[in-house]
Amino acid sequence: MRPLLSDNLRHRLQEHDPKWRAKAILQAICTFLAFIALILFADATAITNRQYTTAHGDWTDWMPIFPVLISLIYNPLTLFLRLFRHNGLGKPIHPGWDVGTHLVIWALGIPSIVLSVGWGWFWWWQPVWLEFDGYIPCNSWNFWSQPCEPVIYTAGKLEIAANVFLGLLIIFEFTLFVLACIATHKHRRALRQTRAATNNIRLQYNRDPEDHAAQEPPAYTPRKAADEEAIVPPTQGATKYK
């Protein structure tokens, strides 16, 4: 069976980011969680929109769609571009993009899940009060019971499931955010070191690093010295005897 990623590509990914496997797995998990949560929240919004007079459904159900949709678009896109670009067709993605996007998803997801849980339909559930003959009157005692208002029970179950997936998504997105912050810190530190080395070369040798690398003599190695001695021509002017 042919591997999905070549050895050369895996080596380049490992060289650029040692945690690329963990990030790829986390992004794949986030994509799955976001896809399921999007379907559940959209279904709950559609149910309440059909049943009640609100024009756009329950706003606490469609509000979580924004962070879920951002995660569903960004994670598979960046995962594909990271593999595609490391295949020799471009530069890797700057980790600052990951920091900003995962922070936005996490910042939007926290109030979304708080409002969705706090204003969920499942808080209106109530037990059924039966009459003596087993009849269920839809009065004030049974107004929000399942036989009288079955829609809020269906919507409530969808909300519970959707918020479970949203909570898991927030946890994994926060993990990706922390990993992106670490990668950004390493990237900035490497840039500072490169900039400092460039400035030292310019101050010490008064030339650009490219010219310095071209004019710098090759490093001495015993093997190279032995090879040079082996090909030294005979001394000129030596007496030739007949």
What's the arrangement of secondary structure elements?
Blueprint: H1 7-16, H2 20-51, H3 59-62, H4 65-89, H5 95-118, H6 150-205, H7 209-215, H8 222-230
Order of helices and strands: HHHHHHHH
Secondary-structure class: mainly alpha
Number of helices: 8
Sheet of most strands: none
Tertiary shape: elongated
What's the end-to-end separation, in Å? 73 Å
Number of E-state strands: 0
Please give the radius of gyration in angstroms. Answer: 32 Å
Strand content: under 5%
What ranges have pLDDT less than 50 throughout 5 or more consecutive residues? 235-242
Helical content band: 55-70%
Q: What does the average pLDDT come to?
A: 75
Quick structural overview:
This protein has 242 residues and is mainly α. The chain has helices at 7-16, 20-51, 59-62, 65-89, 95-118, 150-205, 209-215, 222-230.
Task: List the keywords.
242 residues; mainly alpha; 69% helix; disordered C terminus
Written account of the structure:
The chain is an all-alpha fold and 242 residues long. It has eight helices and no strands. Helix 4 packs antiparallel against helix 5. The radius of gyration is 32 Å and the shape is elongated.
